[in-house]
Task: inverse folding
């Protein structure tokens, strides 16, 4: 048996040598340092590939999307470890899918409906997204929750529908500024996770990604330190570990609080941060690629 570690553990990798767990080199992922973890050793180490997913939000045009994707493709070889994904507005998904064909960049959607079909004007069903080549679907983004009033239960139904269609949900969780100031971050994030777990079970998270968005640190002038981000990521992984250690060790937890090329390496060095859900910086190919390179082993 290879090296073991407690549920907070993460990718263990020797940057210059063979994997410390004894896995073959082709399975080496994906971190250039060994996380030093508290507690008793409990299970074989899981190795998690960093994921850098660009959420383009409501931005773009045919011309700008073409330029952005061409720029990403031109620099793709410099990103050697992380998986890259892009989530364009719905109307540009076919264009982006065609341009990304044959590359390693995954395609995602920014949202998805909880129904398979029917009289739901303006909505997009999960099966439609798989039909045009999407791998990922973001659910529960802070803007969907705060601007459009989407509840934890509705988010959980979207999560379930995405999984049923074969999509990988990127489940967003996070607290508002007033919730952070009241000291209830863990209660809020825990409640958001509980809605999904209650509907789908802890095992469903083995086929998903979580993104922590400190809403208070987005566009407020306030910033979350890498340690503040790590603290919440560790809480999330620890909560899941209390229900299923294997799921907790496997799941990628992304950080979604204004990640940039200048801070990505420090954020990604944290033991429980497995990449980023990138907003504004994903609209610039050079910035997006710089964030992707921050995950290089």
Result:
């Amino acid at each position: 048996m290879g090296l073991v570690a407690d549920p907070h553990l993460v990718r263990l990798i020797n940057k210059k040598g063979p994997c410390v767990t004894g896995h073959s080199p082709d399975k080496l992922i994906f971190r250039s340092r060994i996380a030093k973890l508290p507690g008793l050793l409990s299970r074989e180490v899981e190795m998690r590939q960093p994921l850098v997913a660009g959420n383009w939000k409501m931005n773009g045009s045919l011309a700008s999307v073409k330029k952005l994707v061409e720029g990403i493709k031109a620099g793709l070889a410099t990103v050697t470890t992380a998986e890259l994904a892009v989530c364009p507005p719905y109307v540009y998904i076919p264009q982006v899918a065609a341009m990304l064909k044959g590359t390693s960049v995954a395609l995602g959607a920014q949202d998805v409906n909880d129904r398979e079909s029917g009289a739901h004007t303006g909505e997009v069903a999960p099966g439609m997204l798989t039909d045009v080549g999407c791998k990922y679907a973001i659910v529960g983004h802070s803007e969907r929750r705060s601007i459009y009033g989407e509840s934890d239960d509705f988010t959980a139904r979207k999560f379930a529908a995405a999984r049923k269609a074969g999509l990988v949900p990127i489940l967003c969780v996070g607290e508002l500024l007033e919730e952070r100031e009241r000291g209830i971050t863990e209660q809020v994030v825990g409640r958001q996770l509980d809605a999904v777990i209650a509907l789908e079970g802890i095992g469903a998270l083995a086929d998903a990604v979580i993104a922590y968005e400190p809403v208070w640190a987005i566009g407020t002038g306030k910033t979350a330190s890498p340690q503040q981000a790590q603290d919440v990521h560790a809480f999330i992984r620890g909560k899941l570990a209390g229900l299923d250690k294997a799921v907790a060790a496997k799941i990628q937890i992304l950080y979604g609080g204004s990640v940039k090329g200048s801070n990505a390496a420090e954020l990604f060095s944290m033991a429980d941060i497995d990449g980023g859900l990138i907003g504004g910086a994903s609209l610039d190919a050079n910035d997006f690629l710089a964030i992707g390179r921050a995950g290089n082993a």
Notes: The chain has two domains: 1-47, 49-293. The CA atoms of residues 143 and 149 lie 9 Å apart. The beta strands are 4-5, 43-44, 51-55, 83-87, 106-109, 136-139, 168-173, 209-212, 252-255, 275-278.
